[in-house]
């Protein structure tokens, strides 16, 4: 552990704005009450919140039961999430969704209309024979219909799995087969960066040749109206809708019924299907939207995340709708047609809360630090970031240029597995410092622990970040792989702590600083990718013998990928840039654009131990331009290091 060292020394402190604080959902007194109730009586703490925030069909009797790490929350309770998101807010004459397309078409959907649209589509899904517990894949961009599809699944108790529409046909196929989905919902095509992306053609490729035997049907929403190939299994969304709007009673769901599966990368080649529950997930979504985003009914909340990621689930679709706010969704690229697109959308739609990723902030900064000056961003009252640590320079720019010094910034740490924010400032209360996600939220106990299970107590010393208590929105498992769930998250500390896979340190004020991952996972532009997954994509190319993937620091992406590759029989000479491009395209085809290596180097061999294990640690040193530190005595072929260094 001693090698986890911190080099950051940021200490600027930002006080909450007095006007913000006076209207905030939480104030120091309420926060103290919450924390002391949790300390005194955690069950009462969670029961109070669950009673207050969720509309139950039948009340729960127990709070957290089950043996570690198979916890169950609010077990006897009955509810339906779509009822919580939609039926609750009918008749208020309120907008639910403002949708803006890349071509600047705007559509507004009220809660009343959304209720009807979801009911009608639920009726269609029911009519084609889908039943509670069936899995449905949603492969769509972030448009109202993908939200309608998710909410309809929730209404019927179907388990949805949204696959980010930037993933390749092969990634889609693997996910469909992993969860044995019955139906895929997609669009004909959508626009990104001015180009037409043929989503339906990618689905066709995934389903081709009986590749996905469990799929019965593919529902296609006519989005751009582009020509598609229509197969026997295909159904048009508009053709399966009932001409008269049907109302479908929400399925009575148990608290612990699965709501969705969302795939995320881990340290093996195969993505993990993270399972989330109904009641517990909803509860943490609602309270964090209220506490961390200070969400109120008259807010216009724009979270720029795609619905294909957990952020899109918790802070676009479920949390804000359950809270009765208005969400803005933009189905396009941040820089299209110009790098000021975000600021333009905020001004035109009077967005009040804006949540995005550090990589987006850095990109937009680079394209024009003063571009926001042209826009009236005074509607904004709170800013958030997620996905990776935000560097202080970007934080300060965000606060000054976008937040006009008055908006609190919430740097939210969490994961696909945690379901909702875990460590984050309370706006209006917390003194913030650029680069730290500050302290755990009420109800969450975190620890920094060494490899032997001891608390790391010294200030600024790094260790493994763990969560010490169960919480309602924690993952319930990995689809079809109990052993991997235990091994990945619990085994290290004998089921006592949830292992996040991140390393972190605590400063003298008790603020948490995330330092990086402790496993073979990299974070590219705020998206998690397993290096093994990229390696297996590369080695599946017919010319490639071996590959090792590591990351290095990148100005805009946070981290970028460096792939070290050896070719079969020296197939192609070193540094053949055409072949590098072919290989990048290959990775794009296998996984998706986000996984394309920024740098590829070819060499005769890779550094290996005598037992044949690739020493990625050394490759990391090389990729990062660092001196090779640590032991190289187990290295079998020392000369290769010289060759690799010369290639760079
Ligand atoms: C990993 C989770 C949670 C939604 C987005 C990514 C990193 C996330 C922060 C932050 C530093 C962060 C961690 C975490 N991460 N938020 N505020 N500061 N690092 O979800 O794909 O499940 O990735 O993203 O490494 O473990 P994800």
Explain briefly what this protein structure is.
The protein has 648 residues and is α/β, with parallel strands linked by helices.
What distance lies between the first and last C-alpha atoms, to the nearest angstrom?
30 Å
CATH topology of one domain: GMP Synthetase, Chain A, domain 3
Q: Briefly note the structural class of the backbone.
A: alpha/beta
Full CATH superfamily name of one domain: ANL, C-terminal domain
- Label the CATH architecture of one domain: 2-Layer Sandwich
Main sheet overview: 7 strands, mixed
List cofactors, ions and other ligands.
5'-O-[(S)-butoxy(hydroxy)phosphoryl]adenosine
**Which range does the strand content fall in?**
15-25%
Number of strands: 30
Q: What integer is the average pLDDT?
A: 93
Task: Determine and state the CATH class of one domain.
Answer: Alpha Beta
Envelope shape: globular
**Helicity range of the residues?**
25-40%
Put simply, the count of helices is 19
Which sequence of strands runs across the widest sheet? 5-4-17-16-18-19-20
Layout of strands and helices, then pairs:
Blueprint: H1 18-23, H2 28-40, H3 42-53, E1 64-65, E2 72-73, E3 78-79, H4 81-85, E4 95-101, E5 106-110, H5 111-127, E6 135-139, H6 144-156, E7 159-162, H7 169-178, E8 183-187, E9 190-192, E10 195-197, H8 199-207, E11 217-221, E12 234-236, H9 237-240, E13 253-254, E14 258-264, E15 272-277, H10 279-291, E16 300-303, H11 310-323, E17 326-331, H12 341-349, E18 353-356, H13 358-367, E19 382-386, H14 392-402, E20 409-412, E21 446-449, E22 463-467, E23 477-478, H15 482-489, E24 498-506, E25 512-517, E26 521-524, E27 527-530, H16 531-539, E28 544-554, E29 558-567, H17 577-590, E30 599-602, H18 616-623, H19 639-647
Helix pairs in contact: 2-3, 5-6, 7-8, 10-11, 13-14
Bound molecules: 5'-O-[(S)-butoxy(hydroxy)phosphoryl]adenosine.
5'-O-[(S)-butoxy(hydroxy)phosphoryl]adenosine (WT7) binds next to helix 11, strand 20, strand 24 and strand 25.
């Amino acid at each position: 552990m001693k090698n986890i060292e911190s080099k950051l020394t940021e200490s600027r402190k930002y006080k909450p704005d007095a006007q913000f604080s006076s209207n905030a959902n939480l104030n120091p007194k309420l926060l103290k009450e919450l924390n002391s109730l949790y300390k005194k009586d955690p069950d009462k703490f969670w029961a109070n919140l669950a009673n207050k925030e969720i509309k139950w069909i039948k009340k729960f009797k127990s709070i957290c039961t089950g043996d570690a790490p198979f916890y169950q929350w609010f077990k006897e309770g009955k509810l339906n999430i779509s009822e919580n998101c939609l039926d609750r807010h009918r008749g208020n004459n309120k907008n639910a969704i403002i949708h803006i397309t890349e071509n600047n078409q705007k559509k507004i959907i009220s809660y009343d209309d959304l209720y009807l649209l979801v009911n009608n589509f639920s009726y269609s899904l029911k009519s084609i024979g889908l039943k509670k517990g069936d899995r449905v894949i949603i492969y769509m961009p972030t448009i109202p219909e993908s939200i309608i599809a998710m909410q309809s699944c929730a209404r019927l108790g179907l388990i949805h799995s949204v696959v980010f529409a930037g993933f390749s046909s092969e990634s889609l196929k693997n996910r469909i087969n992993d969860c044995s989905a019955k139906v895929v919902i997609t669009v004909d095509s959508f626009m990104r960066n001015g180009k037409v992306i043929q989503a339906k053609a990618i689905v066709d490729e995934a389903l081709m040749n009986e590749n996905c035997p469990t799929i019965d049907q593919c529902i296609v929403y006519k989005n751009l109206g582009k020509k598609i190939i229509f197969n026997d299994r295909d159904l048009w969304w508009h053709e399966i809708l009932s001409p008269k709007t049907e109302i479908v009673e929400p399925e009575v769901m148990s608290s612990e019924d699965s709501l969705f599966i969302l795939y995320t990368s881990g340290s093996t080649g195969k993505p993990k299907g993270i399972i989330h529950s109904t009641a517990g997930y909803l509860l943490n979504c609602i309270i964090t939207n209220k506490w961390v985003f200070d969400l109120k009914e008259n807010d216009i909340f724009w979270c720029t995340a795609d619905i294909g990621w957990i952020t899109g689930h918790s802070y676009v679709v479920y949390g804000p709708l359950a809270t009765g706010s208005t969400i803005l969704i933009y189905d396009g690229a941040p820089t299209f047609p110009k790098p000021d697109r975000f600021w333009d959308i905020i001004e035109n739609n009077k967005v009040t809360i804006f949540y995005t990723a550090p990589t987006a902030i850095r990109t937009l900064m680079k394209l024009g630090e003063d571009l926001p000056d042209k826009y009236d961003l005074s509607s904004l009252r709170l800013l958030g970031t997620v996905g990776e640590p935000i560097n202080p320079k970007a934080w300060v720019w965000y606060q000054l240029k976008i937040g006009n010094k008055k908006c609190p910034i919430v740097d939210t740490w969490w994961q696909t597995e945690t379901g909702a924010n875990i460590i984050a400032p309370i706006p209006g209360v917390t003194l913030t410092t650029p680069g730290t996600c500050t302290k755990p939220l009420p109800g969450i106990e975190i620890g920094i622990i060494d490899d032997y299970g001891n608390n790391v107590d010294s200030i600024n010393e790094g260790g493994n970040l763990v969560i010490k208590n169960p919480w309602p929105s924690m993952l319930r498992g990995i689809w079809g792989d109990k052993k991997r769930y235990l091994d990945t998250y619990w085994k290290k500390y004998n089921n006592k702590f949830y292992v996040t896979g991140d390393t972190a340190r605590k400063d003298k004020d008790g603020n948490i600083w995330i330092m990086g991952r402790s496993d073979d996972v990299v974070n590219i532009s705020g998206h998690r990718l397993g290096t093994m997954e990229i390696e297996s994509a590369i080695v599946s190319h017919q010319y490639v013998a071996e590959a090792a993937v590591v990351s290095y620091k990148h100005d805009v992406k946070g981290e970028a990928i460096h792939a070290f590759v050896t070719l079969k029989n020296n197939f192609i000479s070193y540094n053949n840039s055409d072949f590098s491009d072919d290989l990048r395209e290959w990775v794009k085809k296998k996984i998706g654009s986000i996984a394309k290596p920024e740098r590829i180097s070819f060499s005769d061999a890779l550094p290996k131990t005598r037992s044949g294990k690739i020493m990625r640690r050394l490759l990391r040193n090389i990729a990062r331009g660092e001196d090779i530190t640590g032991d190289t005595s187990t290295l079998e072929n020392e000369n290769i290091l010289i060759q690799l260094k010369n290639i760079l």
